[in-house]
Every structure is written in structure tokens, then in C-alpha cells.
């Protein structure tokens, strides 16, 4: 077993543009052509490596350029020369070194956990509490403005044994949303259906539309209005019997505290890219549970590397009970960056057993898709 007291001596970055297979519209914006992520590689004295991913989206969490700069300029000096064992100290310093940039901090904590796990020869989930589940139910999002393409995707999902779909709503008109809900009810009654507005509704239109959609009795309705409209979230929650989930309104534990106090939701979408890492995500989920609220394993537009980080977090967090949405590596990217495919089996994400994250990126793919790099030769 390796030595956790060894120092981190390498800190390499790739800003990637990853081609995607379809257009996806959300209430706050569109992703088309490519999605952009930043990959971090840490190296330690004995040659061990750890990887982490930051998956920003400019309209939601932040930009890839700011993420790259946060890592390269502001977080690198805290990490190079530090001991692998001192993860908590490094993350505490990172919190104060640069405001926001939660995706950069998520990438850093992921890479620190990965390298510690590889050196200790244990999975990341064992470093953050131990495992509470072997599999996680997978949800795939339906978000193509051309619904005929999503009809093909729905058939593929059903054939693959995926049991949950999340309909992205509020980016076109209400009739389009109702038509798709009716299609799902008639043609795929076996799917559990969730609805996510991604802040797409105005204060004026939200009550009537959300009431209408609640009539289809989805598992939950997520974030109908803008993140800061806490008052309207609370009002909508009172108005419907279907659970209301907060996503953009709750990034980290600080937001969770206010969300619980103001009664804006019945549950929360927990994402390592919002909270700034795996352990802060666990805190959000536990705070939600302590207030009698549920937690869902959300994600951003990610590659399989960030999916792995989220999988380990959920594997070690019993409070995340609503499954996950780690579908992009399998159903959205033209090609994922992992050496071995992110594992899904009959609609369930499989929790890895190997050391660290249990998977690593193919460096030739990082070099191929990079638009910017800071890699020591
Ligand atoms: Mg959402």
C-alpha cells in the first residue's frame, strides 16, 4: 500500500470540447454541437495519478474559461507541494482562494479522492462514508426540440431497460409540453416520468402551467421559475400535490438552509458541480433529509468521469433516494473520454469496486478534444 504522506507534484489541465449527438433545449438555454468540460490530472511523487472533471454550463453554474482559470491560477498553488493526505485542508483553502467556481472545486476534490483511493487501493466511496448501494436507478432526459428524435430515443431507452425519463419543459410553448406528456402516458406507460422546467417559466405563467402539468401526476416537478424566486417556489409547492424539487435555487449547504427555512421545495437535486464537491453534496443531502425533504442525484452536461464522481457520492449517501441522471456519456456524447465505458446495466448505474474512481480518461482522447491545455511535458 502506498504512502498518503507523499506530495502532489503534478497538476495538469485540459479544456475539452466534446461533440454531442443531438440538440438539447432547457428552460434556461440550449446545448448544441459540443459540450465543454475541464479535466484535471494530479500526479504524486510515486507516479500515482488522480483525475477530476469540472462540467460548467455558462447559463447555470459558470463558464469553462473561468473554471480553467480558477484551477490553473488560483487552486494550483494550494495543491502542488501539498500532501495527498491533506484533502480537507486543501479544500478548506480552496473555498477561500476563489469565490464560487464550484465546478473547479468539484474537479479538485474528485481528483484528490481519486489519487488517495488509488494509492490506498480502495474505492472513492470508501473514503467518504462507505457504500450503501450497489446500483442507482438511471433517469434519461427528454429535451430535443425535434420530438421525433426523442421518440426514437424513448424506444431505445425502453429496449435498454431504463425505467425513468425526465421531460425538459418550458423551452417552447405549453401545448408542446402537454403533447409530450400525453405521448408518454399513451405510448410508454411503464416509464416513471419526471418534469424539469430549468427555470423556464415566468412568475405570471407558472401557476396555471404547473397546475396543468401536475395533473399528469409526475414523480416530481423541478424548478419551474428562476433560481431566486423563492417566494413563487413556496407558493407553487403549496398549490400542487406533486412534489416540487429545487435545482438551480440550491447550490450548496448555505442555499439548502434557506430553502428549508422558506419551505420552497419537497426535495432537492444534489449535484457535485453546484455544491463544489462530493462531501459538500453529502452535506446538502443530509440537510435535506433532516428537514424531511428528498434528494435526487442530478448532473450537468458531463462526461463519464464526472458521472463516476457522482456515482461514488451517491453510493456513499443513503439520503439520495430518487436515483440519478448520469446519462450523457451513454446517450448524448458522440464519444466519451473514459478508457472503459461508464457502466449501466438494465437501467441501473453500477457502482464501481476498483481503486479510486474505478475508471480513468484515455489521455489520447483528452489531447484530441482539447481546445486549451496546461500540461507539463
Ligand atoms: Mg434540473
List keywords for this structure.
about 375 residues; about 20% strand; TIM Barrel; four-stranded antiparallel beta sheet; about 40% helix; binds magnesium ion; Enolase-like, domain 1; eight-stranded parallel beta sheet; 2 domains
List the helices and strands and how they pair.
Layout: E1 8-19, E2 24-26, E3 29-31, E4 34-44, E5 49-54, H1 64-79, H2 87-97, H3 102-120, H4 124-127, E6 135-137, E7 139-142, H5 147-160, E8 164-168, H6 174-187, E9 192-196, H7 206-214, E10 221-222, H8 230-239, E11 244-246, H9 253-262, E12 267-270, H10 272-275, H11 278-290, E13 294-297, H12 304-315, E14 320-324, H13 328-331, E15 344-345, E16 348-350, H14 363-369, E17 370-374
Parallel strand pairs: 7-8, 8-9, 9-10, 10-11, 11-12, 12-13, 13-14
Antiparallel strand pairs: 1-4, 1-17, 2-3, 4-5, 6-16, 15-16
Helix pairs in contact: 1-2, 1-3, 2-3, 9-11, 11-12
The protein binds magnesium ion.
What does this molecule look like?
The structure is a single chain. With 377 residues, the protein is an alpha/beta fold. 39% of the residues lie in helices and 21% in strands. The protein contains 14 helices and 17 strands. It has helices spanning 64-79, 87-97, 102-120, 124-127, 147-160, 174-187, 206-214, 230-239, 253-262, 272-275, 278-290, 304-315, 328-331, 363-369, and strands at residues 8-19, 24-26, 29-31, 34-44, 49-54, 135-137, 139-142, 164-168, 192-196, 221-222, 244-246, 267-270, 294-297, 320-324, 344-345, 348-350, 370-374. Strands 7-8-9-10-11-12-13-14 form an eight-stranded parallel β-sheet. Strand 9, helix 7 (206-214) and strand 10 form a beta-alpha-beta unit. Helix 1 (64-79) packs across helix 3 (102-120). The longest helix has 19 residues, at 102-120. Bound molecules: magnesium ion (MG). Magnesium ion (MG) binds next to loops. Magnesium ion binds at residues 196, 198, 222-223, 247, 269, 298.
